[in-house]
Design goal:
By secondary structure, the protein is of the alpha+beta class. The protein has six helices and five strands, in the order H-E-H-E-H-E-E-E-H-H-H.
Length: 141
């Protein structure tokens, strides 16, 4: 189900800013080669956050590097986390930014916990992965 952003324009643009931040998180994850990135609007059903950003990392070190890059990039924007869980084990890491939550899974844990199935009625937020440059494009630049 596609997400109609027309109904989220809250006063002060709060939810619009949430979507911008969630898409930024997805962009950072894509830049660092996370896979299967999905954004779900869970606000109406959940009430404690508006958007889930869900991604898969290849390995424990990859997941840890994804998390560190996200934390660094949001820190540069002056954005602080409300909470963090699972970094040591790096099988399912949760970064809580209040209005959106980033979930980074190992492939096995993502399949097991199935957030997309659990939140199957939640609309997907539109997001397009940033274009990546090929090796020849990088050397000619």
């Amino acid at each position: 189900m596609a997400y109609d952003e027309g109904h989220i324009r809250s006063s002060g643009g709060g939810l619009v800013k949430t979507l911008e931040s969630a898409r930024f998180a997805a962009d950072v994850l894509a830049e660092k080669n996370a896979s299967d990135i999905v954004l779900l609007e869970v606000g109406e059903a959940m009430g404690i956050t508006d958007v889930f950003v869900i991604a898969t990392g290849r390995s424990r070190p990859h997941i840890q590097s994804l998390v560190e890059e996200l934390k660094k990039r949001f820190r540069e924007q002056g954005r602080q986390r409300s909470g963090e869980e699972g970094l040591t084990e790096a099988e399912w890491v949760l970064l809580d930014y209040g209005d959106f939550i980033v979930h980074i899974f190992s492939s096995d844990h993502r399949l097991y916990y199935g957030l997309e199935r659990l939140w199957g009625d939640a609309p997907q937020v539109s997001w397009t992965a940033p274009a990546t440059q090929t090796a020849s494009e990088l050397t000619s630049a």
